[in-house]
Write a structure and sequence with these properties.
By secondary structure, the chain is mainly α. Helices cover 65% and strands 0% of the residues.
């Protein structure tokens, strides 16, 4: 249940970072159009941004609008 707390505290920041740094972070790859490859890509992207959100949470960095 704590995993949702990490992303919820900086959800707008995670969303903006995903859009702005789409080309710079290794989240998007060229993969085949199979369901398994697309699923693996989505799981990788979610895990990456979840780790970023957890790091922000543990360093007590909370950005609000």
């Amino acid at each position: 249940m704590y995993i949702l707390c990490y992303t919820g505290m900086n959800s707008i920041v995670i969303y903006i970072c995903h859009e702005v740094f789409r080309e710079y972070f290794p989240v998007q790859f060229q993969v085949p159009e199979t369901h398994a490859a697309q699923l693996a890509l989505c799981i990788w992207g979610t895990t990456f941004w979840l780790v970023v959100a957890a790091c922000l949470y543990y360093k007590n960095i909370f950005i609000a609008i």
